[in-house]
Amino acid sequence: MKGRNRSNLNILALTDLTYQFLPAMVERRSGQIVNVASIA
Q1: Is the pTM of this model over 0.85?
Q2: How many Cα atoms are found within 13 Å in the side-chain-facing hemisphere of 21?
Q3: Would you say 21 and 31 are in contact if contact means Cβ atoms under 8 Å apart?
Q4: Which of 6, 16, 31, 39 could be 25's S-S partner, Cβ–Cβ 3.0 to 4.6 Å?
C-alpha cells in the first residue's frame, strides 16, 4: 500500500505541476510539455 500511495503522489504532483503551467502556455498559444516518469 505504501508504494501505491507514493505512486499516486508522484502522478498527482506531475499533473498538478502541468496544470500550473498550462494557462500561460494557452495565453501565449505556444509551449511544450515533456513528462518523464520512472518506476524504480
Answers
A1: no
A2: 11
A3: yes
A4: 31
Q: How far is CA 14 from CA 9, 20, 33, in A?
A: 8, 10, 11
Give the separation between CA 40 and CA 19, rounded to whole angstroms: 25
Report the pLDDT value the prediction gives residue 30, as an integer from 0 to 100: 96
The predicted-structure confidence for 3-38, as pLDDT tens digits, reads as follows: 777 778 878 888 899 999 999 999 999 999 998 877
- What's the CA gap between 34 and 40, in Å, rounded? 20
Task: Record the cell numbers describing residue 21, joined without a space.
Answer: 503551467
Residue 35: which of 24, 22, 27, 26 has the closest Cα? 22
